[in-house]
Design brief:
Rossmann fold, 7-stranded mixed β-sheet, disordered C terminus, single chain, alpha/beta
């Protein structure tokens, strides 16, 4: 052999080097004898993807077929143009001249073999395999806007391999825990397909919609009596995709690769693979590829789908809950565990109030490593994949289709002198980072908003796809992102998960922290040495259960900590437009913050240097109401924290009173300096906005120290006060910060001078 070639890759990796996603490794097929691989014998530099052009003789015959039908129509004025007539004429000529077309007929057979089994070619000295779908896309899917066929890109090859795996695999993990998480890499054959398709949050203009349509066209033209569909945020948008993208690709397909179809070359409503109604007894596939005129959840409820493109589900003001819509659509693609369809869900992701939240919920449920024990499927039925924006970026693809991520080599520049990377001398990573840095250098609110919009459209990490909603409201999302990244780097070593429990399970003893991975609390500071400190109040409080007036327990030093609670509630119909699920009951939230402590930080002007003012623990769960209320009580007893709760959540307030802990209920100070007659806060819009402002100040000053990944994620995602019902950990923490600022415990030293009666802080409970 004249040249020494590289070995073929044995694996493809997806979702690599991401802060959230776990990499997925897919085994590739074994290459054939390298002498049979396209490009063998050439120098590595000359081995590059080349589209397989239709042989000239077949092109001439197709033109002759068109000319013959045109002449036939001119001599028969009553006849109508029909693609079927051209198709029949083409094969009539081929059959008549078969003896001189043996090479061309063999070529057609080889093409159909590759459309079923994939294609091997040498790329820069390495045997490279592309899937049947990718082979079809590169050779036959015409791009109307670019006036050409797709370029080969290694980034697309990796994604297509993963999607082909999703389409064909029947395997799942043998060992999963009670949460469905894989405990080993051992797999077993389930006997049925386990994935409905793929979900891909992506950068703008990456060609994902075209690649999805190409898959749908391949599936439709290779299966009998199936229906393929396009659905979008509106029926008009779905039609635009069909008419502007799919139909031009169908129009350019060579006649010899098309099945029998009804209609002309530019069908208005759908690509219908049936014979024309005037033709009798013609064998046909009977399949169809169209679009849905509605975006509603039940638009495809009665159909049996073989392919579905759900386009841009995370972008724009969606007309439907896309997660609920998918849960219905996937029922049309299977019968019990027997999956017969495939679905693509590519999307850029915009504000969480405009479709992003539902799309993110689907993304969470598409974790390859979390499966249902029975079916082997993920929660959504999809497999998620993500490519960094600089991988496959326009202007940063070399002569061989490889992404130029780092500084380009001299050879890459020599073979692609007009590419952006050649002219700038930069790789895509550096170019994108410099573009984004320009917004950060400016630092103005408008520039930071543009930064968040830019990085959502060009995400470098999967977490970037959801960036910006909190930032657009006013949170310093850059601080949140850095802290979140630090959590990932430290593998959450700065937190402890667990539950607060009574010693020996006996109420009203000391509370201790029981560390456990399935715990409801996320703790950053256990306050060692200051826990479980309380005293009795100086006034009596009525216990509704016994009817007696008793002295209530109260924190020993209420200046040290403040708690917040967001008891679970039932969502109103008005709230549901902001909710990503039909379940009406929210979770219960809780939190404790360390108040500013002048004994530690007095004289330190920069709040970033303080030792106090930190979130100590947070809580989010949906136990029974009684368990939740007792969890909040134990949390407050352990930390010695007075609790700020929404005033209309009377059950939690009564629980503290009836259990003898009324002194732990926080009363706020009114603007005139007097104390509220009832505990907690009225959660009106004004107070919510003020609470948000307190939270934003905390992030600005102390967010760089925050290490609770669950809280940080809620901060990243929340869009505004109207979304608080979906972010219970955030709400509870916000009310704790609000209570620390406005609660009477900060003003105890002033009570004697301003004439406030301390007894008003422990009034007998009202009847609600």
């Amino acid at each position: 052999m004249k040249y020494k070639y590289l070995e073929a890759d044995k694996y493809v990796s997806i979702n690599t080097r991401d802060s959230v996603l776990r990499p997925i490794v897919i085994k590739l097929p074994t290459p054939p004898d390298i002498k049979l691989i396209e490009g063998y014998g050439k120098a590595p530099q000359d081995q590059v993807w080349r589209r397989l052009e239709t042989p000239e003789k077949l092109q001439i015959i197709e033109k002759r077929a068109h000319d013959n039908i045109d002449a036939w129509l001119r001599s028969n004025s009553g006849r109508r143009a029909n693609g079927y007539n051209v198709q029949k004429e083409f094969w009539k000529i081929v059959e008549a001249e078969a003896s001189s077309l043996q090479d061309e007929i063999k070529w057609i057979k080889n093409i159909h073999w590759h459309l079923r089994y994939g294609y091997w070619f040498f790329n820069y000295g390495k045997p490279t395999w592309i899937t049947p779908w990718h082979f079809f896309n590169l050779n036959f899917y015409y791009l109307k806007d670019a006036l050409c066929y797709p370029e080969y890109r290694d980034r697309d090859r990796r994604g297509e391999v993963f999607e082909w795996y999703l389409y064909t695999t029947r395997e799942s993990f043998v060992h999963v825990n009670d949460k469905g998480e894989a405990e080993s890499f051992e797999m077993y054959d389930t006997g049925h397909r386990v994935f409905f398709g793929s979900q891909e949050p992506k950068r703008r203009r990456g060609g994902a919609t075209h690649r999805a349509l190409s898959k749908g066209l391949h599936i439709t033209t290779h299966n009998k009596f199936v229906f393929s569909d396009i659905i979008a945020d509106t029926g008009d948008h779905a039609y635009d995709i069909y008419k502007d993208k799919l139909v031009p690709a169908w129009y350019e397909l060579p006649i010899w690769i098309r099945p029998v179809w009804e209609g002309d070359f530019s069908p208005e409503v759908s690509i219908n693979l049936k014979h024309p109604p005037t033709i009798m007894k013609e064998r046909c596939l009977g399949s169809e590829f169209g679009y849905t005129k509605s975006s509603s959840e039940r638009a495809n409820d009665s159909r049996k789908l073989a392919f579905l493109l759900s386009d841009e589900e995370g972008k724009g003001a969606s007309r439907a809950d896309v997660k609920a819509r998918w849960n219905i659509n996937k029922l049309t693609m299977s019968q019990m565990f027997d999956i017969h369809g495939y679905s693509c869900h590519p999307s850029t992701v915009e504000e969480m109030t405009e479709g992003g939240a539902e799309y993110k919920d689907m993304f969470r449920g598409s974790n390859f490593y979390v499966r249902k024990a029975g079916s082997g499927q993920t929660s959504s039925g999809l497999g998620r994949m993500f490519f960094k924006a600089y991988d496959g970026a326009d202007g940063f693809i070399d002569h061989w289709g490889m992404s130029v991520i780092e500084q380009p080599t001299e050879e890459q520049i020599r073979f692609s002198p007009n590419a952006t990377f050649a002219k700038t001398g930069m790789g895509a990573r550096e170019a994108l980072q410099k573009e984004l840095q320009g917004y950060l250098t400016d630092g103005s609110p408008s520039a930071l908003k543009e930064y968040r919009q830019a990085i959502r459209k060009n995400p470098i990490d999967s977490s970037d796809c959801w960036k910006g909603t909190a930032g657009d409201f006013g949170f310093n999302i850059l601080i949140v992102d850095r802290s979140y990244a630090e959590c990932s780097r430290n593998k959450n070593k700065d937190i402890m998960l667990g539950n607060f429990e009574w010693t020996g399970g006996v109420q009203d003893t000391k509370v201790f922290f029981d560390r456990r991975q399935d715990g409801k609390f996320c703790v950053q500071d256990l306050f060692i040495g200051r826990e479980n400190r309380w005293k009795l109040s100086q006034t009596n409080v009525r216990n509704d259960i016994t009817g007696q007036f008793v002295r209530a327990k109260t924190p020993f030093d209420p200046n040290l900590t403040t708690a917040g609670a967001d008891p679970f509630d039932f969502k109103t119909p008005g709230d549901m437009k902001y909710s990503s699920a039909y379940i009406r009951k929210s979770d219960g939230g809780g939190a404790v913050v360390r108040n500013y402590d002048p004994s530690l930080d007095d004289g330190k002007e920069d709040a970033k240097e303080w030792e106090s003012w930190r979130v100590m623990c947070t809580y989010r769960a949906m136990p029974t109401l009684q368990v939740y209320m007792e969890d909040m009580l134990k949390m407050c007893v352990y930390y010695g924290a007075m609790i700020n709760v929404e005033r209309n959540k009377t059950q939690l307030i009564q629980h503290f009173i009836n259990r003898g802990y009324a002194g732990y209920l926080l009363y706020l100070v009114k603007p005139d300096g007097t104390i509220e007659r009832e505990p907690g806060v009225y959660a009106g819009e004004g107070n919510k906005i003020e609470m948000f402002n307190e939270f934003m100040e905390y992030i600005d000053q102390r967010g760089h120290l925050e290490r609770d990944p669950f809280l940080l994620e809620e901060i990243k995602n929340i869009g505004g006060p109207e979304r608080m019902r979906d972010y219970d950990r955030f709400a509870a923490t916000g009310w704790a910060l609000y209570g620390a600022k406005k609660g009477f415990q900060r003003r105890i030293a002033r009570i004697g001078t301003v004439g406030i009666d301390i007894s008003k802080t422990f009034l007998a409970a009202k009847k609600y």
